[in-house]
Amino acid sequence: MNRRWVAFWVVIGLAALGLRLYRLDAQSLWLDEGNSWAMAMQPWPVLALDLALPNAAYPLYHLLLKGWIGLAGASEWMLRLPSALAGALSVPLLALAARAAAPAEPQRTIATAAAALIGLLSPFALWYAQEAKVYALVLLASAALLWLALRAAQRDRPADWGWLIGLAIVAFFIHRLTALLALSAALIWLFSRPRRYAWPIAAGLLLVGVGMIAAMAAGIGSDRAASGASIAADPLRALWLTFTRFSLDRWPGDLPWWWLGPWLLLVGLGLNNVRAAPRSTALVIGIMGGVPLALFGLQLFFTRLYEARYLMIIFPVWVVVLAMGAAPRNAGPGVGLWRGLGALALAGALITSGLSLFQPRFGLFSGDPVKEQYREAIAELARRVHPDDAVVIHPGYLRPLYAYYMARLSADPAPEPITFANFWTGENNYSQREWDAERRVALAGYTRSLLLIAPDHARTVDPPLPGDEYGLVGNFWAFSREQRTWPCGIWRFQGVHLFCQEAPEAYITGELVEPVTLATATFGDDLQLLGYTLKATTPAGPGVYRAGGNIPLSLFWDVRQPLPEDYSLFIHLCRDCDQPPVAGDDGQPLAGYLPTSTWLPGKPARDDRAVHVPRDLPPGEYRLLIGWYRPSDPSPEGRLPVRGEGAMSAGRLWLATIEIVGDGQSGALPIR
């Protein structure tokens, strides 16, 4: 290998790694990544046993991920790093496979460079190289299998077939779907040279493949596709969807249609060149691409369940076909025209790949949220939650992400989430009456609840009625006023919504909520503080709080007469209260859903707040101050004057003195 090729491989490898590390943790973990982390938290014996279970889809990945977490930790960046490394290594392997497929120079050099560039910039490959899931490793194994299959078919040496068989065995434990590649390798060996009984044996192998697909269809279940868990597609539509996803990782309609033009031209040129390639090359590409695709299409007749990632095993074949399209034959009529078309199509494919990666709303590198924003939604929840809140997650299989992010976003213990088991099983006959009964039991005695819901996933187990956004669970929180409760906030993130609902009286039991500490203070002429409750988040009890956690506070109010304006409340945490506060909370009551102009005399209002304490706040004593101001004038001059015990200058009331301790510590300072 000359220096030029050494430099080529080094540059391609470093560029592939750099792209796959770029903004690696910019997007939140999404549902499947949370499940990967949860599986890796299982004990070693459980994960080892999965290697022998046929229904464990990718057991070796979970074992490898568990070992990696033990060495490197479980941050988002570290969880995704193995996929980024596997994705980067797959690029030179794709180039090697294309090099093996090209018959001679200069085709070989052109195909090698084309495959490397396509693999380097592929939006589809980059997406899976930046998620904590098995599919980047599947791509690496599949690319290696294709390269070894081409070498084995061309050279027909026992050692080459042995390497192919060995990798196929390992790949089966990486992902069970690679069994289709092992089946393809057996067919390639069978037809690589004349053999007796080749066709009857091939028919038997294909029947084995049909059995694999039948098992897959039974495991997936057509009802999941019908309920929307994946894309419902027949084989013809699936073929078109695969083309758009493999090309630019988009669904039809998510990009200008003409972006697909270079890809159509390139794949057409590639298939034409594969047809004219040596028999061994055409055999490998035809079988390793066609057999898994045909068998996967067969199950669509029964399940209608389509996921492009399940076809990752043939993505290397796709890249090689495209690379062959950029490297036309060396001789024949119009060779110059074919070379020009191939170069033009390759340039168009690479340009549209770059455009796709930075496309607003959809591009992985666009800066927009393109994955479900569990991190952002749970961060909002963590900043607001009280220890006695009812936290509902829906569907229940969001629990791993709740556990993962709450442990990292708050120093306080997370409330045990409430899930509704009957929705988890997806019972179609789960009625309003059954839901009402289960909800009453789950929420009885709570005075506030927060719902974390992923609408697209929830509809698979809790389908909404026509025209509705949510099913039974989501609608209960979306229409809080109809439940005779107060909404206290709605936050919508990409793919995840957070609802807050406050009950004037305890759910179901109707128990009145009274302040623990009575207080008497008046803001302005008519706004009265009746008392407050500081809740405990540490073993030391109320008044001692962790840096990185919350100070949960309930404030109780009344008015002497209706107020003419909607005022906002501020809460300041300060040590030197002549300086800006070190933490605080600000806004209208119940996130604006209970404006002060609607308050009536003799109808007390409760406003549950939380002050999130910075993790780096030094331990010690701090004061908690509150006050009201006109939103049109947030300066101290716009604050309502305060009268009563604890009144301070600038419209502030000294509510209590608290202690901040480091994470994992507890104090013993009483509330003053």
Automatic annotation (TrEMBL):
Residues 59-209 form the Glycosyltransferase RgtA/B/C/D-like domain. InterPro entries: LipidA_mod_glycosyltrf_83, RgtA/B/C-like. Keywords: Cell membrane, Glycosyltransferase, Membrane, Transferase, Transmembrane, Transmembrane helix. The chain crosses the membrane at residues 6-23, 44-65, 77-98, 110-128, 134-150, 162-191, 197-218, 255-274, 281-302, 308-325, 337-358. The keyword Cytoplasm does not apply. GO terms for cellular component: plasma membrane. GO terms for molecular function: pentosyltransferase activity. It is a multi-pass membrane protein. Its main location: membrane. It comes from the Bacteria. It is found in: Cell membrane. GO terms for biological process: lipopolysaccharide biosynthetic process. Pfam families: PMT_2. This is Glycosyltransferase RgtA/B/C/D-like domain-containing protein.
